[in-house]
Amino acid sequence: MKNLKKRSLSLLLLLTMVVTLTGCNQFDATAYIKACLDANTHGEFEEYAQITNSDVESIKTQYESLLDEEISYLSAYKATDEQKAKFRELFANIYKSFKYEVGEATKNSDGTYSVPVTTYKLMVFKDVMSEGETYITDYVTEQTEAGKSLTEEDLYPVIIDFMYETMSKNFEAAEYGDAVSVDVTVGPMNGNSKVYGISQTELQSLLENFIDLENAQ
Fold first, then answer.
1. Per mean pLDDT, which range of 12-16, 25-29, 61-65, 80-84 is the poorest?
2. DSSP three-state, residue 107
3. CA-CA distance, 42 to 49, in Å (whole number)?
4. What is the distance between the alpha carbons of residues 176 and 140, in angstroms, rounded to a whole number?
């Protein structure tokens, strides 16, 4: 159960692109961060494509590919195509339910921008670990008493189904944590004053504020 659960912590997309300034264009760090979050979580690509001067379809293709990657680890646990499809849809819906508010950017003396983002943590992993161990233990006991001998691989589909059902139940309840505000830094990339963006590390850290990963440990 623990090994399977740890693998599911890759549940965060990372679409990141930079903005190249041309002529007298004024960089809008607030719009950039909002568009970046909208693309990564809500699957809304138009504004992101416009700001980064990229193609909507190519961004959408990347997004779909990343969703496929998120559920690819289930193959190692003998998940059926139906189970993987259900998880993929669940993950996409979870992303679309992430809540956040992007405030006005402040330009710093070093040329970077600080953008305040208020996040609301969605509680989807609650009870997955705390109840999962008991559920699997009870299942093994029942099967053993019925004269069935189970291998670790025999338990994979049971664990996967339990994770899906519990996460789905939590998602349908749509419980959010208290608002938490963080400042995101947007600045020149690789020392180029004409190219602005957010680091993948900082974006990953920000996205982790949207979901209760601490309940998945």
1. 12-16
2. strand
3. 14
4. 34
For the chain, count helices (H), then strands (E).
8, 6
| Helix ranges (DSSP H) in the chain | 2-7, 29-37, 46-52, 56-72, 81-96, 128-145, 152-173, 200-208
Residue 21 sits at φ, ψ, to 5 deg, of -80, 140
Tell me the helix, strand and coil percentages in the chain, rounded to 5: 55, 20, 25
Instruction: Give buried/exposed letters for 98-126 (b at 16+ CB in 10 A, else e).
Output: bebebeebeeeeeebbbbbbebbbbbbbb
What is the C-alpha to C-alpha distance for residues 67 and 11, in angstroms, rounded to an integer? 9
pLDDT tens, residue by residue, 167-198: 999 999 989 999 999 999 998 888 787 888 99
